[in-house]
């Protein structure tokens, strides 16, 4: 059964999630955005080593520690196909805000909608949920969905950056994420968790 821990990192308090099975060292790191030493300290304290790093989207606060983890653990780095170029051409102001940003590795996989990533004993379904960025992805595993900056508790992600699109983001939430079971637990890129059912009933941006 999956266990999920969160390490909040950086000035934007990005949720870096660690997905693992108790007693098994192999794990998945999702959205390691900053403070690699803090993430590594947590992983080593749990005797975990990520074989896969998944980023929900290209922004620096979700990719900025991927290189350090990949270097230490030999992890594969994966991101949505539509964000591969953006990951290599980061927004300068966001990099500067973080202070410790490192360019992410070249992705080993460019993820497409409907793909299934097999890693650390988990089968992780990839949902393409563009709008916050063109390549934003959400990851579904064992009743959880990691939504990055697409869907938050009772709000949605920014769409006013260079590669954002409001109508596209709302469509991704209504047509893709809201098709998941109501009891699915939403683990966003920032802030607290929620459920699909709660957002259907309470998120005024997507009613």
Describe this structure in words.
- With 207 residues, the protein is α/β, with parallel strands linked by helices.
- The protein has a single domain, classed as Ribonuclease Z/Hydroxyacylglutathione hydrolase-like (Metallo-beta-lactamase, Chain A).
- The chain is built from seven helices and 14 strands.
- It has helices at residues 36-45, 60-63, 66-73, 84-88, 92-98, 166-175, 196-202, and strands at residues 3-9, 14-20, 26-30, 49-55, 76-80, 109-111, 116-119, 122-128, 137-141, 144-148, 151-152, 155-156, 185-188, 194-195.
- The longest helix is centred in the first third of the chain and has 10 residues, at 36-45.
Helix content: 10-25%
Percentage beta strand: 25-35%
Under CATH, the topology can be stated as: Metallo-beta-lactamase, Chain A
Number of helices: 7
Order of helices and strands: EEEHEHHEHHEEEEEEEHEEH
Question: Structurally, how many domains make up the residues?
Answer: 1
- List the strand order in the largest sheet: 1-2-3-4-5-6
Q: What is the overall shape?
A: globular
Report the mean per-residue pLDDT as an integer. Answer: 96
Radius of gyration over all CA atoms, rounded: 15 Å
Number of strands: 14
Span between N and C termini?
A: 33 Å
Which class do the helix and strand fractions yield?
alpha/beta
The CATH homologous superfamily corresponds to: Ribonuclease Z/Hydroxyacylglutathione hydrolase-like
> Which CATH class applies here?
Alpha Beta
């Amino acid at each position: 059964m999956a266990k999920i821990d969160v390490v909040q990192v950086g000035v934007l308090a990005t949720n870096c999630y660690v997905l693992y099975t108790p007693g098994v060292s192999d794990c998945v790191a999702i959205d390691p955005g900053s403070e690699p030493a803090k993430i590594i300290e947590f992983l080593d304290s749990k005797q975990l080593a990520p074989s896969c790093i998944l980023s929900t989207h290209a922004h620096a606060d979700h990719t900025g520690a991927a290189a350090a983890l990949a270097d230490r653990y030999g992890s594969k780095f994966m991101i949505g196909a539509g964000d591969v170029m953006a990951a290599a051409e980061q927004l300068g102001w966001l990099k500067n805000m973080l202070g410790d940003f490192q360019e992410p590795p070249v992705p080993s996989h460019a993820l497409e909608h409907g793909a299934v990533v097999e890693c650390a004993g988990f089968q992780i379904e990839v949902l393409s949920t563009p709008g916050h960025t063109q390549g934003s992805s959400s990851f579904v595993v064992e009743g959880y969905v990691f939504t990055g900056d697409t869907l938050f508790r009772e709000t949605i992600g920014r769409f006013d950056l260079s590669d954002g699109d409001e109508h596209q983001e709302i469509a991704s939430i209504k047509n893709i994420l809201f098709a998941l079971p109501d009891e699915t637990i939403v683990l966003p890129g920032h802030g607290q968790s929620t459920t699909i059912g709660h957002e259907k009933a309470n998120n005024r941006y997507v009613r």
